[in-house]
Amino acid sequence: MKSRHLVHPRLAEKVAFGGLWTAAVVVIAPVFGIIAYMLYRGIGALNPEMFQVGTKGLVPAIVGTTALVLLTALIAAPLGVAAAIYLSEYAGRGPLVRAIRLALVNLAGVPSVVYGLFGLALFVMLFQLGRCLLAGACTLALLVLPLVISASEEALRQVPHSLRQASWGIGATRWQTIRRIVLPNAMPGIITALILSIGRAAGETAPILFTAAFYSLSKPFPTSLKDPILVLPYQLYVMATEDPHATEEQKWATAFILVVLVVALNLAAIAIRARLRRKQRW
């Protein structure tokens, strides 16, 4: 009886871990397969000419994509975290709060082309910003806000309520408790939400097509928020649909560079999250 109780739980644990590893491999292997295939198809075009400023150079698109993603994160992060704090710490459980959460779920499923048309009508036409970096970042910020709010709210909820009670017990106000106790402990989860939003914003084409994308050889890099930009998803779209001189290798190489750029931005955010977690342990 004693040996049976010892063997079966260990066997069940090994089977469970084996199943989890198998599921992870099944999910991750196709991703590496796609990246390897893109590299295989486009490696012939990965030469110094692709990293120059010009009609076929990708440097303006890389700079524009990075600037657009960073500005989107700067706009979406404070708005999303503020909304999440309200929903998690201040709002009750009334019908208005339920309606807000339902709206967030619905907005997260709206196609990106709808956000692009909305950004065109609001930022480009009504606010008369024109097609520029600021209009594109504001549109993408609206696109990722539902994700940032929902994930940040969940991270705030994961902070134990006992920490809040202890802070209140020593005389701290609710805002002091949120600022000094709740937010630092929820920050890794909030950064995870930003990582997910960065990945989505960097790969969108439709919103950028309507609000930000334009390329001029005389001004390849944006010098202000009112300048139009060139981004990798838009350049890849143009190469695949409108540029008869673009070779298949160039298209695959551009797609590969886009994936590498998204991965690099995500790794930077993951490194920041890991550093915050180390500080919390100490």
Describe the structure.
- Helices cover 77% and strands 0% of the residues.
- With 282 residues, it is mainly α.
- It folds into two domains: 45 residues; 232 residues, MetI-like fold (Orthogonal Bundle), CATH 1.10.3720.
- The radius of gyration is 23 Å and the shape is globular.
Helices and strands in order:
Layout: H1 2-42, H2 59-90, H3 95-108, H4 112-126, H5 133-157, H6 161-169, H7 174-203, H8 206-211, H9 232-241, H10 248-281
Could you state the CATH homologous superfamily of the largest domain? MetI-like
Q: Please report the number of helical segments.
A: 10
Morphology call: globular
What oligomeric state best describes the polypeptide chains here? Answer: single chain
Task: Fill in the keyword field for this structure.
10 helices; 282 residues; mainly alpha; MetI-like fold
Sum this structure up briefly.
The protein is mostly helical and 282 residues long. Helices cover 77% and strands 0% of the residues.
